[in-house]
Design brief:
There is one protein chain. This protein is an all-alpha fold. The chain is built from 12 helices and no strands. The protein is elongated. The longest helix has 29 residues. Helices cover 73% and strands 0% of the residues. Keywords: DNA-binding. It holds the Pfam family TetR_N. InterPro entries: Homeodomain-like_sf, HTH-type_Tx_Regulator, HTH_TetR.
């Protein structure tokens, strides 16, 4: 691949190819040289943008997070429903089961022992994503479809459990373990007055992880 003379396009190529290699080979088994060879660029072109493989991963994650945020905002604007609860159910099914959103979960598992990585993921849930969920919950309080007195807190704990605790890749769980945790989340949210974890969401989420090979090797 010839070096692109436009820096922003070169950067995009590096991130795209690196994400693909991290997913296929694993982060630990992918070297900077692997990335250089796949891109067909000079070593200088890579190091002009990044000092290390870890910096590349960080940029890949930020790019994916931004893409997910943009998709979420688009769904909020365009999803039509009878009330806020139904709207949130539809949005969650779309986001939580989107293959692009979860395509590099296997890469994340290699970083689970990195405290900075874990803290960043938790902060993104609480600071970036939860306020969007909470706003829809507030609308649900107004139309009567959601009855919680704690929309902000419900949104935060919901996303922390869904994105981190339930993720089978991060904790090496099998399908049945993951299913039980999704069902627990469903029950818990109902008791909190926020009945937004649908049976369809549970089914789609468990199937998605299966298709991605996200479960541990100890069976279903």
């Amino acid at each position: 691949m010839a070096r692109n003379k436009y820096p922003e396009k070169t950067l995009e190529q590096i991130l795209t190819v690196s994400a693909k290699l991290f997913t296929e080979k694993g982060f630990d088994k992918t070297s900077i040289q692997d990335i250089i060879d796949a891109l067909g660029m000079s070593k200088g072109a890579i190091y002009h943008h990044f000092k290390s493989k870890e910096e590349i991963l960080d940029a890949v994650m930020k790019q994916r997070s931004q893409s997910t945020t943009e998709m979420f905002d688009m769904l909020i604007q365009n999803t039509q429903a009878n009330n806020a609860r139904e709207k949130l159910v539809s949005i969650l099914e779309a986001v939580a089961t989107d293959k692009d959103t979860h395509s590099i979960d296997s890469v994340l598992s290699s970083q689970i022992k990195n405290p900075q990585f874990v803290v960043t993921g938790i902060k993104d849930c609480v600071i970036k994503d939860a306020p969007r969920i909470a706003q829809i919950m507030l609308q649900g309080r107004e139309d009567g479809s959601i009855v919680t007195d704690y929309p902000t807190e419900c949104a935060e704990i919901f996303l922390l459990l869904l994105n981190i605790w339930i993720n089978p890749v991060l904790f090496e769980r099998n399908r049945s373990d993951t299913l039980r945790r999704l069902q627990f989340l469903q029950q818990m949210m109902k008791q909190l007055g926020v009945d937004v974890v649908s049976d369809a969401l549970i089914e789609k989420a468990t199937d998605l992880y299966a298709n991605m090979g996200g479960y541990s090797q100890d069976g279903q």
